[in-house]
Amino acid sequence: MKKFTITLLLLSSLVILHAQSITGKIKDVNGNGIDAATISILNSNKTTIADAQGAFSFKNIAPGVYQLSVSSIGYAAQLKEVKVTSNQTTEIAIILNEQNQQLGEVVVTANKREEDIIRVATSITSLSAKKIEDTRTWGLKDLTALVPNYSYQELGVASQQLQSIRGIQAFSENPAVSTYIDDVNNLDILANGFAFADIERIEVLRGPQGTLFGRNAMGGVVNIITKKPTNKASGFVEAGAGNQGLQRYSAGFKTPIIKDKLFLGLTGLFQTRDGYLKNDTTGTGASDGTVNGKLVGGEKNLYGNLFLKWLPSNQFSLTLNVKVQSDWSNNTGFMISQPSDAIAFAKPDNVYLRRIGEHKRNIINNSLVAKFYGNSFTFTSITAYQNIRLGYSDVDFPGFYSTFYDKNVGELLPPQEVFSQELRISSNAAKKLQYTAGFYGFLQKGFEPTTNLVYELSDGESAFYGLPSGSYIIYRNRSENYGLAGFGELGYSLTEKLKATVGLRYDYEKRQSTFNGFGDAALIGGQITDFVKDTTAKGNYSALSPKLSLSYSVNDRSNVFITYNRGFRSGGINAQRFSSASGVQQTFDPEYSDNFEFGYKTHFADNKVSISASAFLIEWKDMQLYNLVAPFTYARENVGKAQSMGLELEISTIPVKGLQLDGSFGFDKTKYKDFALTRVNYGTGVETKTQVGGNSLSNTPSHTIYLAAQYELPINNKLKAIARGEIRNIGNYYADMQNSLKQPSYTLVNTRIGLTCNNYGLFFWGQNLTNERYLLYGPSDTSFGRTVLMASPGTYGFTLSAKF
């Protein structure tokens, strides 16, 4: 390590010795300097702020070709290629157009380095901070239809959500779409549901991304990047309210503590809402009459983010990011459902619970990112720690469930913890050969909340099992997993226009789960009784994830690509006891998705029009499904295949000054291939097989359509009116594999209208103005019932903000 450090210091000295400078001015179309414009050199540690005349400079720049990203509030972002030669100061002038007359150029990190989105051979939807604000994107569910072929289901709370891209979804405890927040992978579904506050951009990579992102990127990746502080102090406050008791307050502050050396950022958010489902105890046998008529589905969220960045030298940075969130509710929507689709569609605002439950979740997400920027490479280290605790009580699903491990009914479970480390080196120069290579490892300790609980026995059930009244059946499951991965990607420019990329990743995981079977343990009079000792099972898994692509630059602002990617979801352990004679496999293997894609991206008409189009084919195999594997015995096993094929199109244009039109379209034709669901009737003992081959994939809309228009009208030099309208159409789909529970096509109409005056804003917004009622969740398998959950009716409110 000492030799490595000395080598890096010597390299740094040699680079500085031969370094040059970049100077320039940022101006508007009238030739006026733009004060406080932000200028960054991509894939470097160098960011600066222009002075009042728009002047800026970078010193100690080694000879080479660089890309500058230039942005300022109210102006369209621009990328500028700069060539620095020896013994010469490079001078440039950059003219920025107002954002209401030109589309901004987009930087993404899909290949683990900063690049122009046009040059990346992947289908990507990138939402800027402005678009996140304009579309009122407050969470993952707001990405539906905004991102082509993206869909979202939720079991009452954001921490129990299922994301799907191009039909690839989860049938086991691991997600199918990988979610990253500031370089940290949320390995577990329970880690999702972070509040969106002060977001710089959101990148949604559509299609498998296993080579660079690893496990659970079968359908794609949602990459969330929060705003970072610069040399200019800034801040914001925001307050809003709406129907359903909504209140939302957020604030943030960013400042340099030591200019060019030490930076601090703080963000906080508090949000509360009452819920929209009215409880009806008629016919439920509820003993507590006070719960009749109560609202269900409310929640409070408290979120905070601390950001600290230190630049000890021009080539080295350390960034500490600490995120914390607490969610709690005394009228929880966690795991609740409506008895059937027929009842839910007839009375979408009603829920039928004998008790109203409570829940609480605490998350801590810490990361330390170290980067060393060499002359032609960047070395990155990402060290992360996640801690998640969840507890709930009196969840009626049906029957009453509460979290439990070893102390109290309804307790916060022991923390799910993840330690992870990524080491990565990548090229950062515009050369023929570009590369990324690295290592990733993680340790995970899990206490999954739906398998660490107590089930409250009724008096009749207690008598049947020979237990005292008031007893509980205990379910326990703790897991310890670790994984290692090595990955690499090489891109080579065969000609000035043609580039080839190859990549490969190898993942190895070892899992261990300790659990009990049904009836193996009980809570009697507050004391745990173990009738059978817990079982421990282990499994080992490995996977290869290759990538191949060719891209051709038609011109500076157009690119055509063809790509193959593989994604995988880790194997797992059936955490239930099987008899030794059953021959049932205790473990199940990984599943895979292979994506073949052809795409085209372009900006033209002086960056007033942007188009991205793609066609794809995904083959999904070794699907992990819950099946009857022995008499009266269910387990997850690898059965079945599926196929997804479709088209995607995204268009943005500014036809006249002040008017922006956005649209996206996703078409997805899917089917299951050659497998059957095996089930048993517990009353008769008869086994049945339901062929699902040829059926459409569950919870996969036939299409998604998004259309939006926003017009900005200057009233005077300070005051501006903004009006926005959106239409989101989600095609019909079946919630279940059997294709018997159908959600018809539905359309959401949203609007946002308001005024801005300098740095102040007042907006009125409405979501789902036509009050469409549709499924927020439907079971992917209706063999065990048709319980569903309806989405919220129309919502509306206002937001008041100030920036400084």
Explain how this protein is built:
Residues 351-769 form the TonB-dependent receptor-like beta-barrel domain. Belongs to the TonB-dependent receptor family. The protein is mainly β and 804 residues long. It has 2 domains: 1-98, Immunoglobulin-like; 226-803, TonB-dependent receptor, beta-barrel domain (Maltoporin, Chain A, Beta Barrel). Strand 23 (358-373) and strand 24 (377-393) form a beta hairpin. The protein is globular and about 90 Å long.
How big is the Rg?
27 Å
For the record, the count of structural domains works out to 2
**Assigned CATH architecture of the largest domain:** Beta Barrel
As a percent range, the share of helical residues equals under 10%
Query: What is the CATH level 1 assignment of the largest domain?
Result: Mainly Beta
> How far apart are the first and last residues' alpha carbons, in Å?
44 Å
- Give the strand content: over 45%
Secondary structural class: mainly beta
Which overall shape is indicated by the principal axes computed on the Cα atoms?
A: globular
What is the averaged pLDDT score?
92
Signal peptide: 1-19
Domain TonB-dependent receptor-like beta-barrel: 351-769
Pfam families: CarbopepD_reg_2, Plug, TonB_dep_Rec_b-barrel
Membrane topology: Multi-pass membrane protein
